[in-house]
Amino acid sequence: MKIIVCIKQVPASSEVQIDPITGVLIRDGSNTKMNPYDLYALETALKIKEKTNAHLISLTMGPNAATAILNESLWMGCDEAVLISDRKFAGADVVATSYTLSQGIKKQKDFDLIICGKQTTDGDTAQVGPEIAEALGIPHIAYVEKIVEIKEKSIIVSVSMDKTTEVWEVNYPCLITVEKGIFTPRLPSYKRSLKFLDYKPVVLTFADMEDQDESHYGLKGSPTQVERMFPPEKNTDKEMWFDSDERLAIKMAEKINKLKFL
Predict the structure, then answer these.
(1) Per-residue pLDDT tens digits for 177-235
(2) Share of the chain above pLDDT 90, in %
(3) What is the pLDDT of residue 99?
């Protein structure tokens, strides 16, 4: 069984820099971490590996600095790592990102299962996983909260819906996105870090992709464009009121009306 886990490098804090021209995050590798939701995807894959002896490949798209999270995935238990990196891929929205990832996944051949975190903390769209599956033409199930059974030709999962919990069976090859808390992620192993000390992830560039149409990648392949992006403005102004309960209630009502919250 071959499992591919898609991971992403995201800002480690709200202190991020934004390119004023393209409106996208500047990803230089400083102050970054693995997307927290992807840790649950990795742990899910590792739990399946323990039961099936599956071969795990971690895959990410980003600059060379993203190698850091690939190393982390190897130290946790993955067998291989793949970095998709090229200037032509920069500035991609969810559509172009999903398509580029699907092209990179095609290069892995004969995979059975793709696992993604539910969403990323920098985009929060929860669209990339399902769009990868659509680009590959394979079935997918989102919001998986439990792996019920791993079978030879299919997987049975429990899915958290808005008002119900449903159990689904889907044949391989397929893609699932997992909820936070499906498993508790393990820590990277020091022994594995020594084992992979000289390991170099496979790097895929535009030249390696089956589709050589540049209009499908990066900014050119992004149907959605950010009109304006900026860090949230921080305001520490405050007012302190001391009065009777009745007077404070009147002041609060006046303030709310003045701010046009009502």
Answers:
(1) 999 989 999 999 999 999 999 999 999 999 999 999 999 999 999 998 777 766 677 78
(2) 77
(3) 97
State the angle between helix axes of 128-136 and 94-106 in degrees (0 to 180), rounded to the nearest 10.
50
Q: Which residues contact 97 (CB under 8 A, 6 or more apart)?
A: 61, 128
Radius of gyration of the chain (CA): 22
> Which residue, among 50, 39, 71, 40, has the nearest Cα to 1 in the 3D structure?
50
Q: Closest Cα to residue 63, out of 186, 218, 190, 179?
A: 218
Specify the pLDDT at position 179: 94
Domains of the chain, start order: 2-216 (3.40.50.620)
Instruction: Specify whether the CB–CB gap between 26 and 18 falls below 8 A.
Output: yes
Give the Cα separation of 34 and 70 in Å (integer): 9
- The tokens describing 171, both together, are 């044949």
Backbone angles phi, psi at 118, to 5 degrees: -55, -40
Q: How far apart are the first and last CA of the chain?
A: 58
Closest C-alpha among 7, 128, 145, 12 to residue 76: 7
Kind of pairing, strands 32-34 and 9-11? antiparallel
- Cα-flanking dihedrals φ and ψ of residue 216, to 5°? -100, 0
Between CA 94 and CA 101 the distance in angstroms is 10
pLDDT digits (tens, 9 = 90+) for 134-189: 999 999 999 999 999 999 999 999 998 888 999 999 999 999 999 998 999 999 99
